[in-house]
Amino acid sequence: MVDENRRSPAAAVFDALGSDYEKAFASSEAHRASLAWLRKRLPPGSRVLDVGSGTGRPTAATLAAAGHRVLGVDVSPVMVEIASRQVPDAEFRCGDIRELPLEEGSFDAICLYFALLQMSRAEQSDLLRRLTRLLRPDGLLALATVPLDVEGFHGVFMGQDVRITSFDAQGVTGMVRDAGLTVLSENSVMFTPTHPDARPEPQLFLHCRREGTAQAT
């Protein structure tokens, strides 16, 4: 159960958006390409953590269909309910990823698609360090964000009031490296969500490996 008095701003936004969020981003070729990158490199039956799992599509659905063991975590109970219904082969939990007790070194890969933007810069950095510890040696992390140099920016996202904090592209890659990850590849795109209130936005996709391991081929 979620205590309504402690519900985060992100939970309120995504409770309101529900399935509209999935529809708005369904045409993202860059997201599908990122998942293909990950699938190509994951051993069969890998354990994958999907942070900010939303409706479960496309991330959890794609990876579960490939035979991987997926745990999705999201602060929005509405999203978790939708994801559990749409992707029954994955496990979903409602909660703050920063507070869930998860064993270090227990995941082969972590997906972090657009889940940082409503956290402060310090919170984003702290979370990246924690996620790195959750990865096994050689573990992979796929990250996507909107690379803008903004802090506490108030705006409207698909009709919802939001307060956004992010880094520019160089700052994002620096944060990832400071967390102990090696950037293996990156892809910068412009994408317009399919929604009447959406605007074109820059997106940065990074594919990373926990440091101290062999380079990807």
UniProtKB/TrEMBL annotation:
Methyltransferase domain residues: 48-139
Keyword terms of this UniProt record: Methyltransferase, Transferase
EC class name: transferase
Gene Ontology annotations of biological process type: methylation
One Pfam family matching this protein: Methyltransf_25
Xref: InterPro entries: Methyltransf_25, SAM-dependent_MTases_sf
E.C. designation(s): 2.1.1.222, 2.1.1.64
Residues passing through the membrane, by range: none
One of the record's GO molecular function terms: 3-demethylubiquinol 3-O-methyltransferase activity
UniProt-recorded name of the protein: Class I SAM-dependent methyltransferase
Naturally occurring in which organism (per UniProt): Streptomyces chlorus
